[in-house]
Request: fold
Amino acid sequence: MHPAAKPRTIVEHRRGTMPTRDTRKQVALALEAVNNKKAEDVALLQLPGESSTFTDYFLICSGSNPRQVQAIADEVDERLSKDMGVEPNAREGYETAEWILLDYVDFVVHIFNAQRRAYYDLERLWKSAHKLTAQELLQPATVAAPAVVAATATPVVRKRAKKAAARKSGGVRAAAKQSARGAGAKAGARKTSAKKTAVKKVAAKKKSAPKKKVAVKKSAAKKSGAKRK
Reply:
């Protein structure tokens, strides 16, 4: 059994001193870990600015069976703990191994089986996110001007506290489930509407059928009368 995450405060978690570059290094290490375990369909997403109060990055991948899903999660956990001294703020879904979530506050690792990956489709749910390569992650193409950085800089502890507060409102797992339920409800409504339309068409055809038969009989009677004349 995988050990449960130890509850910690934001200050205790890396003591609130993690700069952005360290975050990118940790995400790169997690990316290396999932690739070492032969994870499938690996995607690294940088969330847009309006979502940055929740987290900065999503690392999403799939395993072909429950044992591989758990092995990928173990590898990420162990590598980050051993090499960077970082522990996840929360772990979810390890026992069922359908969707394991490792929450490192500044980034979240999602490890799915194929069915759950397709059902929740986080890439579609967060379609405004930018897909990154490992090279782009470690070597950002653009660097903000010093004046802009000074104007927009936020203390690390305050920023991480905002991210933690964002999780209390439900988090990505709850958002994905709600989105999936909404999509299912819409699909059900479309099916119901299609059935109603089909029933109406059948009813309309039945109503018009007797009229057509009468019209055909009248036409046949006229032709017969014309021949006799």
